[in-house]
Design goal:
Blueprint: E1 3-4, E2 22-27, H1 34-42, E3 53-55, E4 61-63, E5 81-86, H2 97-113, E6 118-121, H3 137-140, H4 144-154, H5 157-173, H6 181-189, H7 204-213
Parallel strand pairs: 1-4, 2-5, 2-6, 3-5
Antiparallel strand pairs: 3-4
Helix pairs in contact: 2-4
The structure holds zinc ion.
Zinc ion binds at residues 26, 73, 122, 128, 130.
Length: 215
């Protein structure tokens, strides 16, 4: 995932948040660049763009306010939330695949980095249509499973190998279920398996060999 930086200048450095428990999704209710949104927010006498990220229709992701700073986007929730704004007006627009995919990547990345963070739409907090009735539910419904996916995606191969090894070692310490004892002993007798580590995980090639031996 590439996050573009337009080098936006803020009139004052926004305060840092002390807590992050929400990720709030918005739409721009119009089209334009991150610079255009920045300019429009400056004209309201804000420090600059109120959102932390801006996702364009072409699927490019742009940095807004620093991620750890207080934004200006949702009444009463700015002190504890991160905001993503999507270019377009989803009262009438249909989101492009490129924008949808970029949104998914960005959302799962953020969900994966803040423990206990909750995803919501601006309209859940305020009397607004934002981010629009046709904003994809698919994005609004990204929850726990996506946090898990994001966590797994960030693992290096070495970390993944460590987890697999540890899981296998842990599985090996579990007791063989009583109901399986008899059949397992029979399988050992017929040479399908050697009887060592009955609770360890099985790779496909091992399963294939065991199936072959049972012929
Ligand atoms: Zn909004």
């Amino acid at each position: 995932m590439i996050i573009n930086d337009a080098g936006l200048k803020f009139t004052l450095e926004p305060d840092k948040r002390s807590k992050t428990n929400m990720l709030i999704l918005h739409h721009a209710a119009g089209n334009g660049s991150v610079e255009a949104v920045h300019k429009s927010h400056l004209s309201r006498n804000w420090y600059g763009i109120g959102y932390h990220y801006y996702v364009r229709k072409d699927g490019s992701i742009w940095r807004g306010r620093p991620e750890d700073s207080v934004g200006t986007h949702t009444y009463g929730k700015n002190m504890t939330s991160i905001a993503i704004c999507f270019e377009g007006n989803f009262e009438t627009d249909v989101m492009s695949d490129a924008q949808l995919q970029a949104g998914k990547e960005l959302i799962s990345d953020i969900l994966g980095r803040y423990e206990g963070i909750k995803l919501s739409a601006h309209r859940e907090h305020d009397s607004t249509a934002c981010p629009g009735k046709d904003f994809p539910e698919e994005l609004l419904n990204m929850k726990l499973t996506d946090e898990c996916t994001a966590f797994i995606r960030r693992l290096t191969d070495e970390q993944a190998y460590d987890i697999l090894t540890k899981a296998n070692r842990h599985a090996a310490t579990l007791p063989l279920p009583a109901w399986a004892t008899e059949e397992y002993a029979a399988a050992v007798d017929s040479g399908i398996t050697d009887g060592e580590n009955p609770m360890q995980l099985v790779h496909r090639y091992q399963a294939a060999i065991m199936a072959h031996r049972s012929k």
